[in-house]
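User: Need the bound-state model for flavin-adenine dinucleotide:
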Amino acid sequence: MARSSGVAYRKSVVQSSEEESGCRIVVAGGGFAGGTLALALARLAPKTCRVTLVDAAPSDAERDPDGRGLALSPAARNLLNAIGLWSRLTPDAQSMDAIEVTDSPLNAALRPHLLGFADELRDEGTKAWLVEAGALLAAIADEVKREPAIDLIAPDAVESFDCDPFSTNIRLAGGRTLRASLLVAADGKKSRLRERAGIKCIGWSYAQTGIVATVAHERPHNGRAVQHFLPAGPFAILPLKGNRSSIVWTEEAETAKRLIDDDPQVFVDELSRRFGHRLGTITLEDPPRAFPLSFQMARRFVGDRLALVGDAAHVVHPLAGQGLNIGLRDVAALVETVTDSVRLGLDIGSPTALARYERWRRFDSAFSAVAMDGMNRLFSNDSAPLRTIRDLGMALVDRAPGLKRFLVREAAGATGDVPRLLKGEAL
Ligand SMILES: Cc1cc2nc3c(=O)[nH]c(=O)nc-3n(C[C@H](O)[C@H](O)[C@H](O)COP(=O)(O)OP(=O)(O)OC[C@H]3O[C@@H](n4cnc5c(N)ncnc54)[C@H](O)[C@@H]3O)c2cc1C
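Assistant: Bound-state model below.
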């Protein structure tokens, strides 16, 4: 498995606030959303904008390995391509060529799929790709280090900030101060910046845990992903490069804990029951990891000279692999908003500019989050009447090619008001 990376973020020297002039954007958080945003601003926004990236994460050597396989939409791939990341990921990226959805009981002799996608995924504009989270983080870290237009401060953390009429004054835990036109909170689900700005969230924790592991198997998957809805939650097999797959196994929290703490052979036996026989014997490539699952939506996506992106703004159930894809839509929308504002000679941190970003992203994110939540509630139960309704629904969708194409385009990030970078267009 690709580990976080061999490349560590290093501290760089950045000018203190007194020496700053012009338009500076400070991005707090160098993870998937923040790192991508910093690269997009540095490489694609007007050159008059300087970017500082502050990341609290320890060096890669100390970072926890992240065993997830991330499904990236074609729209997300367009963004990564525009900022020079996709070519680095291609050799190890696996295309998702077919998706099968079933909710057969585990002990059923056959597991016919109720809904399948294959023809709809042939077009490059609809095909999703699987990349390993560690490989993506490593590529981001490496490109950030190579990018002269990014001033990187790491490891350090944004501790507090306050605004005057023309800028936001930012204090770091390490003692430095920075002044910027705009501060971006890309500091993840437990965003300290969001809290500091007094922005509340709507949300709840699921009584479910996402178990994640990478599995090697005897036979090839041929690019086929499987989504198996079981009473405790969805079990997904996502194809990785080679005879390997990433699993996202949603279980009741107690059962998940027991499975992870138990004898590894018991875990593999349970996993094999869920895999069935199609891929042959399976072996674990790394120890399974547990992710507590929650729903979270910030009530505002902006504050005074502050914009929220990624998990700082929204956290969705991972059943459709959309969390980061939605975060990358934020990134593309914010870069476009900043670029348009600079070209018009407007202040990038003004309420007008930020209101545009919020209008663009808040409803779209809420719609996706609620859709994932609804799907999880509809499928994660053993109610006979609900099973009948959803099986009928899936069978009907399977027979409606137009609707299937729409669903695939929706998951591909090709519907609604799509930011230019996600459409593969220049800014
Ligand atoms: C089991 C599971 C499977 C998933 N699968 C998929 C999938 O297939 N496809 C998909 O699109 N999404 C998926 N997701 C969602 C995806 O993982 C998240 O949306 C994504 O990781 C969020 O990235 P982020 O950059 O917003 O936050 P994070 O990855 O949490 O990064 C936050 C960063 O901010 C830094 N930080 C924190 N505080 C500060 C501070 N004060 N100052 C500076 N830096 C700070 C941290 O060190 C970190 O580097 C999945 C999620 C789970 C749980």
